Amino acid sequence: MSAELRRATAAQLRAGFGSGAFTSLEVVDALLGAIAQEDAALGAWLHLRTGEVRGEAQRADDAYAAARASGAEAVRALAPLLGVPIALKDLVNMVGTPTTAGSKILEGYISPYDATITTKLKAAGALILGKTNMDEFAMGSSTEFSAYRRTVNPWDRERVPGGSSGGSASAVAALHAPLSIGSDTGGSIRQPASLTGITGLKPTYGRVSRYGIVAFASSLDQIGPFARSAQDAALMLHAIAGSDPRDATSSALPVDAALLTLPQGDQAASAIKGKRFALPKEYFVAGMEPGVEAAVRAAVAALQSAGAVIDEVSLPTTEHALATYYIVAPAEASANLARYDGIRYGASKHGGGDLLDGYLATRGRGFGPEVRRRIMLGTYALSAGFYDAYYLKAQKVRTLIARDFDRIWSAGYDAIVAPASPSVAWKFGAKMSDPVAMYLADACTIPTNMAGLPGLSTPCGLSEGLPVGLQLIGAPWSETGLLSIAAGYEALTADAPWRAQEPTDLAALGGAA
Amino acid sequence: MSKLTRAEVEKVAALARLGLTSEEVEALQGDLNLILEQWARLAEVDTSSVPASAQTIVQVMPLRDDTPSPSLSVDAALQNAPARSGDFVRVQAILSEEADG
């Protein structure tokens, strides 16, 4: 029973709670048991709410019992994620919990308030199991830049889970939670979803409020779900989306109720017929692993067999997106991270000399190597005499990148299909000494962020026994459409042998603890 | 493109208020120069008639009424302060006695 509960999707859990087949407390205990046994080896979690979450599960179970006594309609009327355990990336504020953003400079910080998405997830009935590991301030592609611990990939303990949301990705892939929250500034949801074989969605810029999320690059950051199905990702997006008076960049567009009733099975598969997909040649770059390209092209062929029209297209500015991103993101990060001064909160090394000495010591010792690199890059890009050459130039190239995508939507395509990552998960340390090699890991995801578009990664096979992700990129606000296509692809490939394969090191995690 | 000198790296670190060791400055000088080579490729892109985009999802910044509403209590706002004095964050003196006069 415990193993079945771990494998259940959020939608299956909600149905089972409603029918009384099992309880939220049973699920929470199964997950906490798994975490206790396996997380020493997995390294996904930074903080657990073990004490609180069992009581919250009990209250959810009481609500289900009371509703069942009143009839099926009362059960349906309960919150869509009531009693479903989830994880938050450790840059999401939740009252009374540590929020470190993976950095020593926030060691000991306890959130005095809830992020808007935390409030929304609580209102949707979700139970927050805890906070997950990440690259420091979300800067990285492997989670190796966490100041706290190493997160391994449940498919191979010698390999990274991707990043920066590696803890949230590994937790869902290792069946420690059906859903988790990540953030995606340059690919930090889609790339780890690809590397751990799960579904990850980066919504349209503005779809989800960032109030209460530790900021990295404010013109790029978006919050989104990790899940083991498109349907579950849709449920979580429905819970967190929507306008927020506390985030002026959040969109006033209504949250799509259709996210709660995403087509499944044959209905989803048959909807692929007639869809038009653009296949950008620039995403099949030199250096892409042949096994990744083969899996993605096989997925495209499966869509075509189901009646989709596939056209090869060109997005010529793709090659410039990486450099553009590595100007814009560090520039904005250098401004956002100016607040970590050791005065109002966080680690402090003031008191030794004068005020300036305190700033230099607090920030010099509090930030890790990658964050220092990005702050230096950003400070340089914004410094006197260089602004036009770098930041302004990058803002202009961003316009060209967005125009490339606009042409695709104007031509009537439903989505772009592409790899989510040029490689499968790599071994620890392989890219740690070469920042440019690490940055290239996000080459397939960064253009989407620069244009503010929604994108998702859905599992599409294995290469050398490791997961490959198919990326779907859509026009602004097309999340429901993208998730429906992903659900259709899931249905089309439901019997594929690779779908039956569970993470290969899952059993070993318990043994190693 | 000219490469960043050690002095320039130290100047940027000072602007960013990062206290770095000599070894860290040296490592950063190498890393930054590698990354600047990537940046330099943007000069190839013709943007002479292209407007800059701060972000690309067009939307109107919403207005709302300026209505007071509850915010964090002083205690909650100060709970993470490294040093506190009453309802204030305590910092080191920023003016010397001479400057005061």
Explain what you see.
The complex is a heterodimer of chains A (513) and B (101). By secondary structure, chain A is α/β, with parallel strands linked by helices. Chain A has a single domain, classed as Amidase signature (AS) domain (Amidase signature (AS) enzymes, Alpha-Beta Complex), CATH 3.90.1300.10. Chain A has helices spanning 2-7, 10-19, 24-42, 50-70, 72-76, 116-123, 166-173, 190-196, 230-240, 265-270, 290-305, 318-336, 355-366, 369-382, 388-410, 435-440, 446-451, 479-492, 497-500, 506-512; strands at 45-48, 85-89, 127-132, 179-184, 199-202, 222-227, 276-280, 309-313, 415-419, 455-463, 466-473. In chain A, strands 1-3-2-4-6-5-10-11-9-7-8 form an eleven-stranded mixed β-sheet, with helices on both faces. With 101 residues, chain B is mainly α. Helices cover 38% and strands 4% of the residues of chain B. Chain B has helices spanning 6-15, 22-40, 74-78, 97-100, and strands spanning 84-85, 88-89. Chain B has a two-stranded antiparallel sheet. The termini of chain B are far apart. Chains A and B meet through helix 12, helix 13, helix 14, helix 15 and helix 16 of A and helix 1 and helix 2 of B.
